[in-house]
Amino acid sequence: MNNIANKVVLITGASSGIGEATAKHLAENGAHVVLGARRTERLDALVEEIAASGGSSRGRSLDVTDRQDMQAFADFAASEFGQVDVIVNNAGVMPLSPLASLKVDEWDRMIDVNIRGVLHGIAAVLPGMEARGSGQIINIASIGGHAVTPTASVYCATKFAVRAISDGLRQETDKIRVTVISPGVVESELADSISDEKGRNEMKEFRRISIQPEAIAHAISYAIAQPPEVDVSEMIVRPTASPF
Ligand code: NDP
Question: Which atom of ligand 1 is nearest to the CA of 62?
């Protein structure tokens, strides 16, 4: 069973971590992957690496907070490969801090990237998928979308929102598969954006049990590989040793 081969899969936040691992894994399985992020030099290197292994990909600069840019990214994918079969709304940031630190700009950034970015991704592909009568939207939430912890209020709020949006979308359509995947702690660059010292130190300790991003890539690939009438709506993939 390989319902992945020849599918056109857009991946936001493909320049590192889960997005990068997913791009490689899906390309190995025959998908045409279209990679978006702001660090285009990383995307160029990834496109080269995928090509060297015989895979098919394109990279394009993308800021998910900019709705027009997201639409241009989806249009670019359609012009390169004919249509969009799947979008993985993966781009995210996690500058944790206690609310009392009043890092309001960081709250805004999490809302812009983690919520608006996902909505922009949905808006960019939904009309085409509805018109065609098929497609799949995969949103990356978090275990932080299932339970709240100190310093993570705003991050968790954004991930609760991703789950709410995903479930609402799923109920509104009978043609498009909607999948939300909630990773536990995964090795990546995500914690690098924490500017709060307490939050950074706590995360360093917590992240010792991290699993590899390939574990999430495999979950994404499982959801895509199912036959069209099977929608894997929600998965949590976390370290065996995770207390949360
Ligand atoms: P990384 O920091 O390694 O990757 C985040 C990606 O998001 C990067 O490719 C970055 O690319 C991209 N990104 C950030 N801002 C923007 C933007 N404005 N426009 C476009 N791309 C952007 O972390 P992960 O791989 O871990 O994170 C991927 C997803 O997984 C996130 O949604 C995160 O919340 C979620 N997650 C991760 C967990 C973990 O422990 N790692 C646990 C639970 C959920 P660039 O900077 O080049 O734009």
Answer: 20
Distance between CA atoms of residues 62 and 55, nearest Å: 21
Burial of 7 (0-12, 13-18, 19+ CB in 10 A): buried
Tokens of 56: 């098919």
Q: What mean pLDDT is predicted for residues 70-96?
A: 98
pLDDT at 115: 99
Determine if ligand 1 sits within 6 Å of the CB of residue 59.
Answer: no
pTM above 0.85, yes or no: yes
222 in catalytic set: no
Q: Which CATH number fits domain 8-236: 2.60.40.10, 3.40.50.720, 3.40.50.300, 3.40.50.10140?
A: 3.40.50.720
Compute the average pLDDT of residues 64-73: 98
Q: Is 96 in the pocket of ligand 1 (CB under 6 A)?
A: no
The predicted model gives 209-234 an average pLDDT of 97
